[in-house]
Amino acid sequence: MTATNNIVLHIDHVHKTFAGLHALADVNLDIREGETHAIIGPNGAGKSTLLNVCVGVLPPTQGKVMFHGTELTGLRPYEINQLGVARVFQTPEIFGDLTVLENVMMAMLSHRDGAFRLKLVSRFDEQGEIGQRAIQALRERGLGEHLYHLGGALSRGDKRRLEMVIGLVQKPKLLLLDEPTAGMARADTNATIDILRQIKDSGMTIVIIEHDMHVVFSLADRITVLAGGRVIAQGVPDEIKGNPKVIEAYLGEEQV
Amino acid sequence: MKHTSKLADIALLVGFAIVVALGPVIFTPIGAGYPDLLQKFAIYGIFAIGFNILFGLTGYLSFGHAAFLGVGSYAAVWSFKLLSMDLLPAVAFSVILAGLLALAIGFISLRRSGIYFSILTLAFAQMCYNMAYSVLTPITNGETGLRVLRQDPRHLDAMLGYVSPTPSLLGLPITGWTGFYICGAVLVAAFGVSIAIFRSPFGMTLRAIKSNQNRMGYTGYHTRPYLLSAFVISGMFAGLAGALLAATDPLVGAERMQWTASGEVVLMTILGGSGTLLGPVLGTGLIKYFENIFSAYNEQQLQLIFAFLPDAVRDGVVKTASLFVGEGWQLTLGLLFMAVVCFLPGGIMEGINRLLGLKHTPKVKSLGDSPQRDGLGEMVIEEMPPSHGASEAEKKAAENKAAEKKRAVAP
Fold first, then answer.
1. Where do runs of H (alpha helix) occur along B212-257?
2. Which domain holds residue A189?
3. Region Disordered: start and end of each range (chain B) (predicted)?
4. What is the model's pLDDT at position A4?
5. Which of A181, A231, B52, B356 has its CA 20 to 30 A from that of A214?
6. pLDDT averaged over consecutive 10-residue blocks of chain A (256 residues)?
7. Does residue A78 sit in the same domain as residue A204?
8. Domain boundaries, chain B
């Protein structure tokens, strides 16, 4: 465990109401540098809402989210990404009409050049520095044979892998993973766990939303349990396993 | 789809330049080898190339691009009147003014996307058109049209003691074959710029916006300034085309800004293949050819063409065919457009690529990777609450099935 006590993400008394429905009620959460923090909870617990609040899709009704001392509330997704927060989607959100290589090159370009820079004449292809690094990154993650295929033509599993590469090449300070193994077969899940463990060991701070308890307990340093929009428990995996409130709300059905 | 090499792009540009240079030879057999028409090909080709940078790359369909063409024309004529008969200041003036107008219209219109964007641009263009006829009459000379007069001041020319009765480029008259080669050179330059933009980081960013604008935000891109840049650049191309149009036909009327003119450039781009480099130029050539050649046919000529048929049949054939030529040339164009959109959604370029066998169909490795399975798999798996025991089993079954299918198909 490489976690230090530096706080990367500070979620401070966040409320989110949708037309009277309390999706999040007074959520407090600190993500420490270098830790892998899992957010779990039954369906409708507010996990995805919390993630959406963090990346700027939804503004919180009350409270604020701080990232390395910068308030994220009111910032737009691209500004949050430029600060160093990368989000990997549950359903792959890639550029379907661009090749796999171009998908990764796009991610690297915004990491290097910022949110907007007008470059009209320089060539941008696999010969360039970004192109070469993108090819390297894709080969490392086993997508080397798909470099020139369209993103939209990939299988679901490969799209997920591509998502992950897109997230990682931006060298984020915080990686948000939205159910990285949802709908995967057990063998694929295990492969994903191995990949995530490598990423975790490289010192990356990770927030992971996950249903699969096997994944959660294999990876998480700390776990936050949400139910009905509230944090009902927080702690290291062993504490969570034994927490009667958690078992009642969630784990009981899963028979972990 | 590997990226094309720099060498291939240079070859394309050189090839394009050669075709333009040989234009008079190439187009003579099909009856289009005269300078006025070829000049039109070139000018509208520039217009379409610029339009394609916006529509082809970003997918934002502007329905008001003729406004920039018209403003470019008016600006050029004012430059001919007040400054000089030379083309260079006129072009500079037109491009800048069209760019500024595009900046203003784009700034507002790009707050919306899709059909709303198209309607906004259409509305702005129609406003320009109507204003040219009404409040702006002092500038546009209303229905009469703006023209260059002998007694216009032309301060720059007066200072240099240079007198030219018609617009010219550094002393070369922009008429006849010289006029075509001047426009052709500008077309080649515009094509070169278009290649550079397509291959640049900017070009790829625009394509990514077209593919998934939502994702762009999460990837760290502020899309609005990219879109606005594309809009302004394509507006400047239209301004350039407008200046050349004014130079070859110095009587400028507001009809150049009408929505039909905006629609025409959309047709040209789609017909040729939007998002391709050559498509817009091909589409322009085809539409301008139809407009000028097909519309020139009349019944007598058709009688001659079908003279080999027996009288009884000939009359019927000529009657039918005459519907599609002369005044009815747009009917032919409409049918052609329908056929292209139905059978070649990628335009003429898709047809050419198919013929040459260049079209890359997405390489699907096994049936397990097919989009159908993908869609189905997603539905089966994601609609179930994974914490529920029974559905967990179902989910596993679905996964097993999918895995089995994959195994069965894989070599």
1. 213-218, 223-248
2. 5-83+171-250
3. 366-411
4. 53
5. A231
6. 71 88 89 92 85 86 90 89 89 90 94 90 88 92 91 88 91 90 83 89 91 88 90 88 78 50
7. yes
8. 17-257
- Residues in A touching B53 (Cβ below 8 Å): none
CB within 8 Å: B387 and A43? yes
Contact call for A91 and B378, based on CB within 8 A: yes
User: What's the one-letter identity of residue B227?
Assistant: L
Confidence of residue B395 (pLDDT cuts 50, 70, 90): very low
Q: How far is A75 from chain B (nearest CA, A)?
A: 11
Cβ proximity of B339 and B347 under 8 Å? no
**Closest approach of chain A CAs to the CA of B108, in angstroms?**
19
Residue A42 lies in a domain: yes
What the block records as the tokens of A187 is 């063998």
Q: What is residue B260's DSSP assignment?
A: H
Sort out which chain A residues have CB atoms less than 8 A from B363's CB and list them: 149, 153
Please indicate, yes or no, whether residues A41 and A102 belong to a single structural domain of this protein: no
The secondary structure of residue A250, as a DSSP letter, is I
Give residue B390's pLDDT band: very low, low, confident or very high (50, 70, 90): very low
The residue of chain B with its CA nearest to that of A40 is B387
Q: Is the same domain home to A181 and A233?
A: yes
Looking at the structure of chain A, the number of domains it has is 2
User: Residue B46's closest CA among B179, B199, B191, B262?
Assistant: B191
A 125-144 residues with CB below 8 A of B?
A: 125-127, 131
Mean pLDDT of all residues in chain B?
Answer: 82
Distance from CA of A234 to the nearest CA of B (A): 20
Q: Do A82 and B220 touch (CB under 8 A)?
A: yes
Cross-strand bridge partners of residue A18: A21
Beta bridge partners of A29: A11
For B156-177, what is each residue's pLDDT tens digit?
A: 877 777 777 778 788 778 888 8
Structure tokens given for A221? 């340093």
> Does B194 contact A at CB distance below 8 Å?
no
pTM score, two decimals?
0.85
Return the pLDDT at B193: 96
Whether the CB of B195 is below 8 Å from some CB of chain A: the reply is no
Per-residue confidence band for B305, with pLDDT thresholds at 50, 70 and 90: confident
Whether residue A237 is contained in a domain is answered as: yes
- C-beta atoms of B217 and A77 within 8 A: yes
Please give the residue that has the higher pLDDT: either B333 or B62.
B62
A 63-92 residues inside an 8 A Cβ radius of B: 76-78, 81-82, 86-87, 89, 91
Run of H or E residues at A237? helix A237-242
Please tell me which residue of chain A has the smallest CA distance to B370. A155
Q: A218: domain CATH number? A: 3.40.50.300
